[in-house]
Design brief:
heterodimer; A: alpha/beta; 4 domains; seven-stranded mixed beta sheet; seven-stranded mixed β-barrel; 11 helices; 26 strands; 29% helix; elongated; B: mainly alpha; Butyryl-CoA Dehydrogenase, subunit A, domain 3; two-stranded antiparallel ribbon
């Protein structure tokens, strides 16, 4: 302590006006901070949407904290954690969704990773080249909430929000179809193949197709689907047929559908209805073959060119098809014959007119009807469908002159009577002609002919010997006569000269007579008085 | 310490011009020379410091949780918190930069708030231990405080400069506001705190005027 400060002359503080606010007001600041912080926290908690896990085969292109989940290019969430599943077979992606995206997390929602893709159908996901992959969403329509999903490996061809309907097609084989292949209606693209998978039991393939809305109404319960894949070249009894849809379908494969023009007007088919996928249009457009009856045809001619699937046709209308070709040994005669099994579509053979109930005939009725037709001459015959390829087909027609026959109902399948085919008929006819020709007594005819010719010869010789000299004499006589005649009538012949002299005399006589006549005319008295003197 | 403090002598030193005044009668006094208000100690120093500090603590949470910067570019958008930026820099090999940001933006504000809390508690408990160290600590807190704003400056400058629409945009996130508030509030808290209080337990103040 050196100095007492009070020793110094220190100025006295002045009184300041009282400040208007209480120092306690400073506590408003932490209050505001707490409120602001609390509000942020509450907001964050309230805005925090649900989390869900999605499993993928690979996390290629995915990044925790970066990869977004987008629906129609709008962010609805973000990948938070990428982890392997316990058995290391899959990648489990935990994603944080926005609160508004709650409705996406339901049964049926599909997730897939959008990456750039180049395929025959086009290029997609180009934007992800720059922005990196993202997870696409196709929301399900169910209301059942879910938090665990299995991600798709490829983007679904058709998303749920597209109006339209799905149909299920069953086919024995896949052809060249693949997911994304187009579906055509009258060659206009109206949909796509969603999936094309083998049946679990391997018995065939199941193809799911999507037909976009307004065109889905063209799919009725009567609609037929067929493979429009690539180029379809058929080489059969009706010739060569090349059938394609668009160029795109040649590369990609595709499915076409159409309703038979004569089909009844049916209501549009329900979604997920099951249809048969036919291998081609021709088969698809066949009449519905519900009732088929198997018959056996026995022939005595070669069946080369008759293949299973060859048509059975009645005057140009296909009523069935050949199911098999084989041999048949007649148990009674032990004769080897050719056997063709045919499937006849009963409802095609029966009259189409009238209500469907009329078509449903009882088996007995059908038998009696067929017996009636056979008694009128209905027979099966092998015909050549294509001269170029030698394809054969079975033709049904009426042959009133054919030998009477009946359907043998005792065998199974029943045996239907046949007549020899056109070629065979021709052969048989030629054979008959040949055998008749063979029967002709050619030797005898030859001998007779020879004798005739000999007698002709004799006659000729006799004519030559007996007739010819006489004839020569006669001719010579005739020539002489003619020579004489000629000489007689020659100009210098005496006869001619005499004749001329005579005529001249006659002329002169006539002149004299005329003179006399003139004179008499002038001088008629001269007849009495006589001629006067020339002086007068 | 043997020196007589102004407070012990019953005098008031002006905060602004350091003029020593004799107290006058009445409540609110002002410097006779410059007119600044006069107190023996800053009025309600501890309470105000606590208020600012608590506010800073509260806002420290969103400052670190919420993104400070939203970067949008052709390649997608990104929201970065301070910590994610540090982690990114660390992983990408820029360790010095990561360290600078970590120290300036996370460690320093945090340490500052802890230091202020220690000072306030110790003053309230009238502790007489390590008086010199605590004073040094206070000086450091005051000195280093404003540098924490570097982050906010960077974000503000980038936000102003990088606006190329589709190509790249940078926006300040809500965390930036909170972080700026934390820095400002800790500065206020440090300002409100009267370091002379540290020494008061040794030289008690004559309470002729209330704080």
């Amino acid at each position: 302590m050196v100095n007492d400060p009070r020793d110094y002359d220190l100025p006295e503080a002045v009184t300041a006006p009282k400040r208007g606010w209480s120092p306690q007001l400073v506590w408003l600041i932490p209050l505001v901070a707490v409120l602001a912080g609390g509000w942020l926290a509450v907001k964050a908690i309230l805005e925090r949407g649900p989390t869900a896990t999605i499993s993928f085969k690979t996390a290629e292109g995915l990044e925790a904290g970066k990869t977004k989940i987008k629906y129609k290019e709008v962010d609805i969430g973000e990948v938070k954690v990428i982890a392997l599943s316990e058995d290391r077979s899959q990648v489990i992606v935990t994603a944080q969704f926005a609160k508004e995206a709650q409705s996406f997390l339901v049964e049926g929602t599909a997730f897939w990773v959008v990456r750039p893709q180049i395929g025959a159908g086009g290029i997609s996901g180009l934007g992800t080249l720059f922005s990196g992959a993202y997870i696409g969403v196709d929301p399900g329509s169910s209301s059942e909430a879910r938090r665990e999903f299995t991600g798709l490996e490829t983007a679904p061809v058709v998303t749920m929000d597209q109006p339209g309907r799905q149909f299920v097609l069953r086919s024995p084989d896949l052809g060249s179809l693949a997911a994304g292949a187009p579906v055509y209606y009258r060659r206009a693209k109206v949909g796509q193949v969603i999936t094309a998978d083998l049946n679990p039991d391997g018995s065939g393939v199941t193809v799911k197709v999507f037909v976009a809305a307004p065109f889905d109404k063209y799919v009725t319960t009567e609609t037929r689907f067929w493979q429009a894949s690539g180029i379809d070249i058929t080489f059969d009894a009706s010739g060569i047929q090349v059938d394609t849809q668009s160029l795109g379908s040649i590369i990609l494969g595709g499915i076409a559908f159409q309703t038979r023009p004569d089909a009844l007007v049916m209501p549009p088919a329900e979604a997920n209805s099951v249809f048969t996928l036919f291998p081609n249009r021709a088969q698809a457009m066949k009449l519905p073959d519900t009732k088929t009856t198997l018959y056996t045809l026995l022939f005595d001619e070669s069946l080369r060119g008759l293949e299973p699937g060859a048509p059975v046709d009645f005057r140009g209308v296909v009523v069935g098809e050949v199911t098999g070709v084989g041999l048949y040994i007649d148990p009674e005669t032990k004769q080897l014959r050719m056997r063709a099994d045919v499937n006849v579509h009963a409802n095609r053979l029966e009259m189409r007119a009238g209500s469907p109930s009329q078509v449903a005939l009882l088996p007995a009725e059908r038998k009696s009807r067929l017996d009636l037709l056979v008694s009128r001459g209905l027979r099966a015959q092998i015909k050549t469908g294509n001269l170029l390829t030698g394809q054969l087909f079975v033709a049904l027609d009426f042959f009133p002159e054919a030998a009477p026959a009946t359907v043998n109902w005792t065998t199974d399948p029943p045996e239907f009577p046949t007549v020899p085919g056109g070629l065979q008929q021709l052969q048989a006819m030629l054979h008959r002609v040949a055998s008749k020709l063979e029967k002709l007594p050619l030797d005898k005819i030859g001998t007779d002919l020879h004798q005739t010719l000999q007698s002709f010869d004799k006659l000729a010789k006799r004519l030559d010997a007996e007739l010819a000299p006489e004839a020569r004499l006669t001719l010579e006589e005739a020539r002489r006569t003619l020579g004489t005649a000629e000489r007689t009538f020659r100009s210098d012949a005496p006869l001619q000269t005499d004749t001329r002299e005579t005529l001249r005399e006659l002329t002169r006589t006539a002149q004299s007579l005329r003179v006399l006549a003139d004179y008499l005319e002038r001088h008629p008295e001269s007849l009495i008085r006589g001629k006067k003197d020339n002086k007068q | 310490m043997t020196a007589v403090t102004a407070a012990e002598a019953g005098l008031l030193a002006c905060h602004a011009c350091n003029l020593l005044c004799r107290p006058a009668a009445g409540h609110d006094l002002a410097c006779a020379r410059c007119g600044a208000s006069l107190h023996i100690r800053k009025p309600d120093s501890i309470g105000r410091a606590w208020a600012f500090l608590i506010a800073a603590y509260v806002l420290y949470v969103p400052a670190n949780v919420l993104p400070v910067m939203e970067t949008g570019s052709l390649f997608g958008s990104q929201r970065d918190t301070i910590m994610s930026g540090v982690v990114y820099l660390w992983h990408s090999g820029s360790w010095p930069l990561a360290l600078i940001i970590f120290i300036a933006s996370i460690l320093v504000p945090g340490a500052k708030m802890v230091a202020l809390a220690i000072l306030l508690v110790s003053v309230q408990r009238r502790s007489t231990r390590r008086l010199l160290d605590r004073t040094k600590l206070y000086r450091m807190v005051e000195l280093v405080g404003r540098w924490s704003m570097v982050d906010i400056y960077v974000a503000a400058i980038l936000t102003a400069l990088v606006q190329f629409q589709a190509l790249a945009t940078i926006k300040a996130g809500p965390g930036a506001i909170a972080f700026g508030a934390v820095v400002v509030l800790t500065m206020f808290a440090a300002e409100s705190f009267d370091p002379r209080l540290i020494w008061d337990p040794v030289n008690p103040v004559k309470r002729s005027h209330h704080g």
